Amino acid sequence: MSVFYEYLEENKAKIKDQLLQLVKAESPSHRKDKVDECGVILKEIFQNNLNGNWQLQEFENSNAGNHLLFSLKEDSNKPRFLFLSHFDTVWEVGALPIVEKGDDIYGPGIFDMKAGLLSSIWAIRSLQQEYTELPFSPVFLFTSDEEVGSTTSRKLIEEVAQTCDAVFVMEPPVSGTFALKTERKGVGRYTLSVKGVSAHAGNHHEDGVSAIHELSQQIIKLEQLTNYEQGTTVNVGVIRGGTSSNVVSAAAEAEIDFRVTSHGEADKIIKALESLSPFNNAAELAISGELNRPPMEKSEKSVRLYQKALLAGKRLGIELQEAKAGGGSDGNFTAALGIPTLDGLGIPGDGPHAIHEHIHFDRFSERSALVAELCLELSNS
Ligand SMILES: [Zn+2]
């Protein structure tokens, strides 16, 4: 068994204690005050765990929590590995209790992804027990708005990733499995607004142009773009419109989420959305939105990185698997830039964004040791 695994197992109580501190510091994306409070605890945990001359850069945001970037002060020619994590969650404060059941721990954001974040810190700590000087230079980026589309962090993620040789995304593995994520769908978010003409539903129905009627027809057309074989889905998840049942509606809108596995499909869907035309020429359409995350497609570089992970797994006596994920992560940005990216290195469990969100804490040491072994495997090549 790996020395890192043994070291991590010996420190299980300390790890659990830090994990619970992080989870108790609840951090819903839209609560800057809470996210920053969690950031304070995160900084403490980081500094208490790791030796070395770390430089902390804090990127302030007025509406989102601050992003935290830790890197080593000494400039070196060693390969730079980026550990990418977010510490915001989808949970309102107090919405989900923290409960331990056997080897599992339930709590808000524990699976997605505070346990994975902590695992990257402990992977480096376990390496520091063995090496006074690491054969690579670790860089940690902790962001605060992944769950709401990474609006304020995207640029920073891209900039930092471009200075690195590989990116390890500490998001959890596919729910209920140990599988790493080597492909992720791209995600687009659009809003379709329809402008009609209001009229009294009784006296002047024929003078009205129903925005709701028009939108309904558009929705059917939109959802026909779904193609499961291609892995493309177009989902209208929210609709709004109208003011009263006795009024022909003057306005209506739909929120659209689409997912694609390739850039080609993304272009196709975007083109379809941007060329929508009204069924009733008296109605007006307006479409807005963007491809929020480009698809993370398999590349030669990412395959090589995954193969290194397989070797690292062998040293621990585990056989890894890979999988495609339907959800996007910040790894989509770095992969799209051509930087070797491996996602899903976090802690196994289940229930992301669901009330049964939990991790298998008994697998923490194994996963964290895997990251340590992977760093060595990659620096030696
Ligand atoms: Zn996440």
From TrEMBL:
Record keywords, A-Z: Carboxypeptidase, Hydrolase, Metal-binding, Protease
InterPro entries (alphabetical): Bact_exopeptidase_dim_dom, Pept_M20_glutamate_carboxypep, Peptidase_M20, Peptidase_M20_dimer, Peptidase_M20A
E.C. code: 3.4.17.11
Pfam families given in the database record: M20_dimer, Peptidase_M20
Domain Peptidase M20 dimerisation: 182-276
Record has Cytoplasm as a keyword: no
Taxonomic superkingdom: Bacteria
Recorded GO MF terms: carboxypeptidase activity; metal ion binding
Alphabetical list of PANTHER family matching this protein: ACETYLORNITHINE DEACETYLASE, BLL0789 PROTEIN
Full protein name: Glutamate carboxypeptidase
